[in-house]
Amino acid sequence: MNWLIWAIPLVIIVFLWSLNEFMRGKLTQIVSGILALTIFLLVVVAFVFSGWLFGLGALIGAFVFGALFHYPAGIIASKFIKY
């Protein structure tokens, strides 16, 4: 069950990173860098606390979730930009 410590925040942070790709503004690059660093740290936490197998799953999962969240994040960002 210790994989929930890093798995749920990893999914949320990857979604926010995908959402940030479609946003406009001055701080989007800074936010993207912070979110990417957080994703990297969560993968490291997965390797340290859950073992290499779960760590590898977190690394692959980050890329898979990034691809899965790309389209929904674009739709949500377009609704945010309208406001």
Short précis:
The protein is mainly alpha-helical and 83 residues long. The chain has helices spanning 4-21, 28-50, 52-68, 70-82.
Explain how this protein is built:
This protein has 83 residues and is mostly helical. It is 86% helix and 0% strand. The chain has 4 helices and no strands. It has helices at residues 4-21, 28-50, 52-68, 70-82. Helix 1 (4-21) packs antiparallel against helix 2 (28-50), helix 1 runs parallel beside helix 3 and helix 2 (28-50) packs antiparallel against helix 3 (52-68). The model has no long low-confidence stretch (mean pLDDT 90).
List keywords for this structure.
83 residues, mainly alpha, 86% helix, 0% strand
SSE class: mainly alpha
Proportion in helices: over 70%
SSE string, helices as H and strands as E: HHHH
Annotation, overall tally of beta strands: 0
Oligomer: single chain
Topology:
Layout: H1 4-21, H2 28-50, H3 52-68, H4 70-82
Helix pairs in contact: 1-2, 1-3, 1-4, 2-3
